[in-house]
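PEP-CTERM/exosortase A-associated glycosyltransferase, pasting as requested.
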Amino acid sequence: MTRVLHVLDHSLPLHSGYTFRTRAILKAQEAMGLDVRGVTGQRHAAQSPSDPEVVDGLTFYRTPGEAGGLPLVREWSEVSALADRIVALASEWRPDVLHAHSPALCGLAAVKAGRRLGIPVVYEIRAFWEDAAVGNGTGREGSAKYWLTRVLENDVVSGADRVVTICEGLRADLIARGFAPEKISIMPNGVDFEMFGDPLPRDHALAAELGLGEGPVIGFLGSFYPYEGLDDMIAAMPAIVAAVPDARLLLVGGGPAEAALRTQAESSPVADAIRFVGRVPHHEVDRYYSLVDVVCYPRKGMRLTELVTPLKPLEAMAQGKLVGASDVGGHRELIAHGQTGTLFPADDPAGLAAAMAGLLGSRAEWPARREVARSFVREHHDWALNVRRYLAVYQALLPSLDLPSVAA
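Structure tokens follow.
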């Protein structure tokens, strides 16, 4: 049986979009007949009861210690510790392929270990982390750290045997940097239909508790980062309520922008139509999804959102929800306007309001649009099917591997 070791920044039991994508990949690969395990670097900030640690039936190895020291020295120490852990692990559990996932530090460790072991390395980019830092407000485009992160990313792409990105935007950017197109494959975000395939009926008790009435309800469930554009959503609410008086906005989650958003909402002339819930346990998210008619993603226009496709709209479609989203590149790659969702101009509250009012006013079209979107996700973004794209990548590196049929 082919063995694949995934090299990770962090993993379950921590909850994040990163760990949920990892879980989906590993579970789907296991179901396909591969033997998979994960190893995390020193940034996995969770106390592990054992090493290896089994979480949700998946096995993860940990890298001991905590990197310290001056910048650059600290990061290189992390890379070296993770590379050493991979090499030590390989003497016990002999992987056929090292499959590293961004950030670049994980990729550097995998490339370093792969060369020592003579094992091919696949590097998977989920986002360019220098752009993610700008979007999260922790970095500045054009700064020394921004360019250093990009240089490290380029080094990993050069050193890896094959590269996988989650979308065409990232792949095209790498090709524009001079990397060979045939080296770079796409593994799009997907949905685990065992988790998202059976939406709950509307939780009327929860709706009453939150004072939502009968709606319609526009919702956002996720992290409140500035680039998500939730300030534009709040700014659009007066015009939406003027067109659809019973409309409500439900915001579930938290993050760096939360305080500013709450202040903005409190001063809105339709403050009573806006509900903040805060963060909720992961197992309760479905209850809040059940309240929402339209899930809205008003992302700002910037490099991060233009290049990267988000996972959340796919999950919403799988839940049978209508989707509205700004027309940034990452959304356009996922959403066909008027078919699988509604696109509106980015950074434009008036345009957002007009689009949402039009969508809310066309209830007769909702059932057909929900079904089209759900069918799109099932046909093109089901992890159980998409994960087979990895087989061609692994097979190209090691033709003698005993892999399941790529065409199966």
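Note for the archive: The longest helix spans residues 73-92.
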